[in-house]
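Q: I'm writing up a methods section and want to include an example of the input and output format. Could you take the sequence below and give the corresponding predicted structure tokens, formatted cleanly so I can copy it straight into the document?
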Amino acid sequence: MSFTLRPAAMADMAEIMRLERAGFAEAIQETEEAFAERLSSAPEGCWVLAGEAKRLYGYLCAEFWPLEQGFNSARFARNHAAAEAHVPDGEEVYVSSMVVDPATRGTGWGHRLFRDALVEMFARHPRLRSTILIVNPEWDAARRIYRAEGFAEIGEIEGYFASGSGQRLPAIVMRRN
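A: Here is the clean output for your methods example:
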């Protein structure tokens, strides 16, 4: 199968939400309103893996933030307002959400989406110097991708993710400079 990496558009919203529902447990899915706001406030950070017939096989959404030493856990709130957080000339990319279609998992396309979207953002915005993200400690495949791309764990946000057992798991904060 062949895919094209391209900037996301509002016309992609139904497919982005399909991927969101397929990729994440209901307790951590973000709303359509949050994605629409990201697309309008930070369009340069929203990318999709497009296939044939307008079907999407992955998306990555990001915002540009001022670069801070360490991290402020409040900045990572789910469904936060991208319009308030995104700074077009920011120095750090915050990858707020990424998912690939379950049909493409294990094919390497998730790694390509992640790597290539970041390459595009850094090429188009030379002020960018760093990337930060959070990940569930149970998402081993995602953590392997991030480590392979040079990310290191810099801390945790306690009680961020709901687990299937009802317990709360931390978010692992990872950064690459």
